[in-house]
Write a structure and sequence with these properties.
Elements: E1 5-9, E2 13-17, E3 20-24, H1 26-37, E4 40-48, H2 51-62, E5 70-73, E6 79-85, E7 91-95, H3 108-116, E8 119-123, H4 130-140, E9 148-152, H5 162-169, E10 174-178, H6 181-188, H7 196-206, E11 211-215, E12 221-225, E13 229-232, H8 245-258, H9 263-278, H10 289-296
Parallel strand pairs: 1-4, 1-8, 2-6, 4-5, 8-9, 9-10, 10-11
Antiparallel strand pairs: 2-3, 6-7, 11-12, 12-13
Helix pairs in contact: 1-8, 8-9, 9-10
């Protein structure tokens, strides 16, 4: 079976929980889960030349991830986010700014990586600064025409705007966002929100997308393409915390999308992956081959 190269492009930071810190940021979580499924997950980000940056690179290596595309910043610190988790396992974040990942540089190494990628997952958070935004544009404009572009909307604090959302939606094949973000996004972009299906269809046609994915937490997800829709009711689990569960969902979705599987297969696999991570503490649980085998082998 072909092994795809899938890039998580964006923020890399330490999530600071009351009980300690964990390496986070959607791109790293996504790349780790991609690796567990058997593809080549690569993180493209930037950390400071400091103790937290060194610890981040060591942690990625421990997780089995390639650190060749982690840029080192001698002037800015490694990113951190203060995290509080409520009784339902739902996190809130206070994200420091400015930090190293606000200053991506367009380098020959990243240009090479862009050409290698079969899929690139990029989020809205890392576009909060002009320099990282321009570098992300350069990356996406350098990939092969057949490379899948996944825009993972991640509304945090005030780090987004209608312009950023519209500009990057135009560059995407797939948009993924959660049910809380959906009304905010479509209203910012000029469409009155009535229900999830009509909002998803509006996004699909307005931005000429191939797929819109709306996650609904414990209530599953909705996938909408030009030709079909599929709803999944979710997989009940005892939630430890939901940090990283959305990134795990995206990893499984992309894994099956690249293999041209059906919406029902993508939805089942992605919900299995997300619910498994939600049942574990942290965004990068240890490999569980029985879980992973079920996620890989989902079919009609």
């Amino acid at each position: 079976m072909k092994k795809f190269t899938t890039v998580g492009l964006g923020e890399l930071l330490w999530d600071i929980f009351p009980e300690g810190r964990q390496l986070g940021g959607a791109p790293a979580n996504f790349a780790y889960m991609t690796n567990l499924l058997g593809d080549e997950g690569v993180v493209a980000s930037r950390v400071g030349d400091d103790a937290l940056g060194e610890d981040a690179r060591r942690r990625l290596e421990h997780l089995g991830l390639n650190t060749s595309y982690i840029q080192l910043d001698s002037e800015r610190r490694t990113g951190v986010a203060q995290v509080e988790v409520d009784a339902n396992g739902q996190p809130t974040f206070r994200i420091a700014a400015p930090v190293a990942w606000d200053y991506f540089e367009w380098t020959p190494a990243w240009q090479t990586l862009a050409q290698l990628a079969d899929a690139v997952c990029f989020g809205s958070l890392a576009q909060r600064s002009a320099q990282s935004r321009e570098t992300t544009y350069s990356f996406l404009n350098s990939i092969r025409t057949e490379t899948t572009r996944v825009f993972d909307v991640n509304l945090r604090q005030s780090f987004y705007s209608a312009q950023i959302l519209a500009d990057f939606a135009k560059l995407a094949d797939i948009i993924k966002l959660n049910n809380d973000e959906l009304p905010t996004v479509v209203q910012l972009l000029g469409f009155p929100f009535h229900d999830q299906e009509s909002a998803a269809e509006w996004l699909l046609h307005t931005f000429r997308l191939k797929l819109v994915c709306i996650t609904r937490g414990a209530r599953g997800s909705l996938l909408v393409s030009e030709y079909a829709k599929h709803q999944h009711a979710g997989i009940p689990v005892t939630v430890a915390d939901t940090v990283g569960s959305g990134d795990a969902f995206t990893a499984a979705l992309v894994y099956h999308y690249l293999r041209r599987d059906s919406l029902s297969t993508m939805n089942e696999a992605a919900n299995r992956m997300g619910s498994w991570v939600a049942s574990q503490i942290g965004a990068t649980p240890a490999r569980d081959e029985s879980q992973l085998a079920r996620i890989r082998s989902v079919s009609e």
